[in-house]
Amino acid sequence: MTGAGAPAPEQPLIRGEHIGGIATLTLDSPHNRNALSGRLVAELHAGLVAAQAAPDIRAVLLTHTGTTFCAGADLREAGRFGPRDLVALLRAIVELPLPVVARVTGQVRAGGLGLLGACDISVAGPGAGFAFTEARLGLAPAVISLPLLPRLDPRAAARYYLTGERFDAAEAARIGLVTLAAEAVEAADGAEAVDRALAPILDGLRRGSPQGLAESKRLVTAELLRAFDRDTEALAEQSARLFASAEAREGMTAFLERRDPAWLR
After folding, report:
1. Does the N terminus or the C terminus of the chain have fewer Cβ atoms within 10 A?
2. Amino acid 225: pLDDT
3. What pTM did the predictor assign?
């Protein structure tokens, strides 16, 4: 019980639930579109650690509340949450011995796209939308390229990195950003379509042995981890340099103020 005059306890930004061999971690920070704040990332790390420690868990399901899966880094925390913090989160997902599955029914941008790249399997619904908007802010998708470029079609990566165009779940599946685009089902909403597509995937993971899942994941993530080992320092430095630039400050300020940046005037 909270004493008189004491502040109310903060609500968690990650909600965790363990049912039927699956640890569900829900991004629950809709006020900033599930942006990657320092607190949300710390809670997500803790959720991954707890799932790994639970002997009955076979996989992690990463999902979200609201209409956005993840909008990327919280721009209001610039200077407190940096590129190496994001690298640590992405690598933790890739190295986790449990398969990590993403359930996407909303919009995904920037660091949220990196989360999808780090996940082993991802299913997106008809209401999902994607865009690499960094170039429009004076930035580049530097750190998130660690898990993404080994998975993405190179020509598609060039197009969407450079143009910032939005694309849907079907295109995301075609280019390798997500595993599966759930098709709309008559008289069902997008979330129901995603859950229907996820059911056989999660059932298959429940049937795996801990050793079998861990060693199989080790095989399919080997190339991603080589990219982390090879390119982390260069990409983290590029990201830090761009975020500190005058052009990026103008781009991020314009975004927050909902106006065009100076280079469009």
Report:
1. N
2. 97
3. 0.92
